[in-house]
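Methods: example folding runs. The two proteins below were folded one after another, and each record is reproduced exactly as written to the output file, sequence line first and C-alpha cell line second.
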Amino acid sequence: MVILGRLRNIANYRGFILGSVQREFQSKYRNSILGAAWTVLNPLAMILVYTVVFAQVMRSRLPGSDSTFAYSIYLCAGVLTWNLFAEITSKAQSVFIDNAGLIKKINFPRLCLPVIVVLNAGLNFAIIFALFTAFLVISGNFPGWTYFAVFPVLAVQVLLAIGLGMVLAVLNVFFRDVGQFFSISLQFWFWFTPVVYPVKALPAEARGLLDWNPMAPVIMAYQDILVAHKLPQWDSLLPALGLACILCLLGMQLFRKRAGEMVDEL
C-alpha cells in the first residue's frame, strides 16, 4: 500500500516530471547553432564509425557469421544498451546530491527525481536506437518480428538500472565514497560483460563467472535478437529480473526510512 501511495503521488506530479525532462533536453543545446540536431548527429556518427572501421577497414568478422555488418551490429547492440544502463545508474546514484537545492526549497515527492533520470535517459536512448533500427533496415539486417522482443528485455534492464541507482542514491547521500567507488566499478563491469567480445572468445572457466553478472544475459539477449535474429533465452533473464525487483524494493525501503535524514545531510 505504501508503494502504491508513492506511485500515486508521483503520478500527481507528472507535469513537474515532464517539464523537468523537457528543460534538461533543451538545456543541452541552448547555445548550440545546430541545436537538437546534435541528438541525431552524435549517435549517427558512432554507428557510422563502427560500420566503416570494423566492417570496411578492419574487415572484422563475428565468429559463426558471414555478414559484413555482423560485428558492427554486435557492437552497437551491446554498446548502445550498456550506455543506457550506465547513464541511468550513474545519474541516479547522485540524483539527490545534484538536486540538493531543489529538495530544500520545494516540497515535492523526492522519488520524482529518479523517474526524471529514467525518462531523460530513455529519451536519449529512443533517439539513438531509432537510428540504429533505421540502419538495420537499410543494411538489410532487420530481424523482423523478433525485433519486438527487445522491449521486454529493455524493461528488465531499466528496472535493474533504476533499482541499483536508487540504492546507491540513498547510500551516496550519507557516504560520498559510494559514488566514486561505483564510477570505478562500472568501468570494470563493462569489460566483465560481453559487449565488445563474444562469449565464445572467453576461456571455459571464465564463462562460468558470467553467471554472477546480471547484465551479461541482458546484453546477450539484445545480441541474440539483433544479430542472430532469434528470441533470447527468457529463463536466462529471470535472475536479472529477480535482482531488479529486490533492488527496487530495497531502494524504496531505504528511501522511506532515510528520507528525513537525507535533507539534513544534503
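Second run, written to the same file directly after the first:
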Amino acid sequence: MSIDVKVPVLPESVSDATVATWHKKPGDTVRRDENLVDLETDKVVLEVPSPVDGVLESINAEPGDVVEANDVLAVVKEGAVNEAKEDKPADDSEQEQPKEQPAKKAEAKQTAESKIDTGSAGPAARKMMKEENIDASQVEGSGRGGRITKPDVQNVANTPMEERVPMSRLRSTIADRMVEAQSTAAMLTSFNEVDLQAVMDIRKKYKDQFQKKHGIKLGLMSFFVKAATEALKQFPIINASLEDKDIVYHRQQNIGIAVATERGLVVPVLRNTAAMGLADIDGAIRDYAEKANSGKLGMEDLQGGTFTITNGGTFGSLMSTPILNMPQSAILGMHTIKERPVVVEGEIVVRPMMYLALTYDHRIIDGKDAVLFLVAIKDMLEDPARILLNL
C-alpha cells in the first residue's frame, strides 16, 4: 500500500515552506517516524517523518521547491522493507567480493588519476596535481619553458573557487528585517560601561552551591536579564512598541536572547522574566541554545518578545551598535569583558569592565529615558542587591 507523505500543518503566520534537505532517496528503506526531509520556513526548520515502515517510492518536491500545507512531498510503500536492496541478504558471490576489493579500488584509483592531464609538470608537481585533482589547464607554469612546478600547483590548490548558493529562508528573512529596521526606525545608540566585579564575586562564591541545587551553572546572562527586567519596569516606554500611530505598552517583560547558529541568528524569547529566578533563566537559555543548534526551535519559541539582549562579547566584540529586532523599540548589546584600570574611590584598580550599548527607536523613546534605562542596568549589575530590593 502506498502512503502519501504530506507537508504538515504549518505554524501560525507561516504560509509556505521551502524544501531544504532530503535524508532519503527513492528506493531507500525507511522506518516509521524517521526524518525524511527538512522543510525551512522563515524562522524554523520542520522535520517531516515517515508515517510508516516501508520503502521510499518517489519524491515529489526537490530542494528549493516552495510547498504549502498538505502538499504531497513523497510516497512511501508500506510494509516493503524486505524488498529493499540494502536489506537483502548477500549471496555467496557477494560474500566473496570483499577479497577482490583492494585490487579493484587500486584499479579505480589508477583509472581516475590517469584522467588528470598533468601536462609538462615535474614529478613532485604531477603527484600533487593528482592528489588535488588539478588539471594542467588550471595551472600556469612558471618553470623553464612553461614547465609546471610544485609551487604553481600549490597556488592553485590554495586559491578558493567561487561558489554561489541561494540565501536560505532564514537568512533572507534576517536580511529583510535588518533593512526594515534601518529604513523604518529612527535608530540611535547610547553607550555606557559596567564594572562586573560584584557579579563575578557572586558567581565565584556561589557557583558550586548553585550548580548542586539547580543542576546548572550560574551564568552571566541571567544577571543581565534580571537587571533589564527591573529596568523595563522602571521605564515602560523601553518595553513598548509602535503600531501605526499608537504606542503599545506591554505589561509583561518578554526578553529575547539572540543565539547564533550555523543557519543564522535566531532570537528565542524568555516569557515573563519578572517571574523567573536566575536558575530558571539559565536553564531556559541552555535549553534554547541546544534547540537552536539542533534546529528544534518552534515558532512559539520565537514569538512575543518585547525587548532583546544580544551578546557580541561571546565572539570577542569590544563595542558595536546592535540593530533593532522589529517591531521592538530597543535592544541591549553586551560585549567582551576586559580587565582595565579604573578609578574607584580615588584609587586606581583593575576591574572586569564591559561596554554596554542600547539601540533604541527615537520616534517613541527620548534620549533621557534611554540613557537612564542604561544607567539603571549598570547600577544594578554593579550592586546586584538592587535587583533583589527593586531599587
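Comment on the second run: The chain has three domains: 2-87, 99-158, 170-389.
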